Amino acid sequence: MPSITEEICTGNLGSLQTIPDSFTWNVTAEDSVLPPSSAGVEESIPVIDLSDPDATTIQLIGNACQTWGAFQVANHGISQKLLDDIESLSKTLFDMPSERKLEAASSDKGISGYGEPRISSFFEKKMWSEGFTIADSSYRNHFITLWPQDHTNYCRIVEEYKDEMEKLANRLLCCILGSLGVTVDDIGWGQKAGNSGTKLERGAIRLNHYPVCPEPERAMGLAAHTDSTMLTILHQSNTGGLQVLREESGWVKVDPRPGNLVVNMGDLIHILSNGKIQSVVHRAKVNQTRSRISIAYLWGGPAGDVEIKPISKIIGPLGTSLYRSVTWKEYLQIKCEVFDKALDAIRTVVNPSD
Ligand SMILES: O=C(O)CCC(=O)C(=O)O
Ligand SMILES: [Fe+2]
């Protein structure tokens, strides 16, 4: 975990009047957001209604996964109250003075806790954001430090959020696999999934805060990356900032729509689908007048510690498996070491376009 105790503390960014050199990113032409199309309509990821999923819904999800690697869902079944509760928990946390937040900093031992974005170490410049990761039960101790009186209530919100998101993630996976003509049973985890011993939690939550920024064009909230997940479900406050990269066209904004959730395909579904589904490259930009909160539910799949490899039914009898098998834990380790080369590191077949 990168150190956050340097002279300019991430916890105080919102009070700065100018951006320090260490936070100034080089802006290039490819960096800018796509202009609206010739029809004047701004193109973005599709919004899919989950209220009554049928064959058409599955097809829409399949198209979105293969073209964008992301989509938004409406009528997803997560209550607005729970979304509001986790958002206000995040606001309360990030509004605390920097010294208080640092008391809950993630230690070397656990990954839960307060800190800079986990991908910071791969970039020369610093990002205009702070976050809190909930990856294992040690987050409870941090909550006790932050809220000696109210931690029980806040822990309850987190647990409910994890349970509800896990259910939604399972539903979404079924739809995504359905669009590829397979089912969860075809993954072949069977018994092993139920009987696995020490478990990595199946999902982690990352609370992100992007303070107001005096020069948003020159700053970066969260640099371009793909998630090391099966899929990620993102709730964003009503301030825009998320952008997804569409191959051969550029960065496209994903503006918040009240109540909707964004679903990003991660690297593990790319592996499982033998490359049919792309994991989406995305980033977060910042805003001059409004701060922004996002809550990412990072989901590793129905079972956290089994082997993940391309589904044989998708490969087909004559096809080739593009990736060797990995566990989620192993993949996270590889990502920590080589970042955006992680998929290449487990590829068995050299990409013909390379
Ligand atoms: O804040 C956002 O919109 C993106 C967050 C994100 O990509 C992440 O936490 O992995
Ligand atoms: Fe992400």
From TrEMBL:
Residues 201-301 form the Fe2OG dioxygenase domain. It is an enzyme of class 1 (oxidoreductase). Transmembrane segments: none annotated. Keywords: Dioxygenase, Iron, Metal-binding, Oxidoreductase. It comes from the Eukaryota. Signal peptide: none annotated. Pfam families: 2OG-FeII_Oxy, DIOX_N. Gene3D superfamilies: B-lactam Antibiotic, Isopenicillin N Synthase, Chain. Pathway: Plant hormone biosynthesis; gibberellin biosynthesis; Hormone biosynthesis. This is gibberellin 3beta-dioxygenase. SUPFAM superfamilies: Clavaminate synthase-like. Belongs to the iron/ascorbate-dependent oxidoreductase family. GA3OX subfamily. The keyword Iron applies. Its EC number is 1.14.11.15. GO terms for molecular function: gibberellin 3-beta-dioxygenase activity; metal ion binding. One of its GO terms (biological process) is gibberellin biosynthetic process. Its cofactor is L-ascorbate. The keyword Amino-acid biosynthesis does not apply. It comes from Capsella rubella.
